[in-house]
Amino acid sequence: MKIAFIGTHGTGKTSLCLETAAWFNRNSKHIDIVKEIATDSPALSINDATTIGSQLYILHTQIARELLAAERFHHVVADRSILDNYAYLKRKFGPHPIEGYLFSEWISTYDFQFLVPIHYSLIGTNIRPEDELFQRDIDGLVLKLLEEHDVSHHKLTIPDPSEGGKSFIEQVKETIRKSSSEEFPLD
To answer: What pTM did the predictor assign?
Structure first.
């Protein structure tokens, strides 16, 4: 089973990856996490200063790391998928020929893609800028790519605690339990 958390930066995808991996481990399901390539490779030029080389490295490394993880583990959780990684390339450089392969071949390798919406004010980090316009541009491109390529995904809804709304991790667990042939006890 391969799961990816997708969307723009600053939405909590990394935290959801860690929570999902912990849940799998508690249920005796060994899992590997594919970390976000851009933040795992600090020498890359990213954001507005990115280069086509950096973006292609990120896309190809994402695929390579997912392949390696899937060879070693039955369960893989990815902090991003190729879809949102491609959105960063497309924002800066426009369409690229790799788009055909990404969406005709690789996108179908994900069992679950969870779209994490923007739900709090952006906090800049040493990797991503505190630039809400940039964040929203990527969010819009991700949504457009999902629609244009009819990509199967689950959009997480922002929980409203006053109405008993389920947290993102609760929504993820519920979706996996309902859609998977594997047994996952309630916890």
So the answer is: 0.92
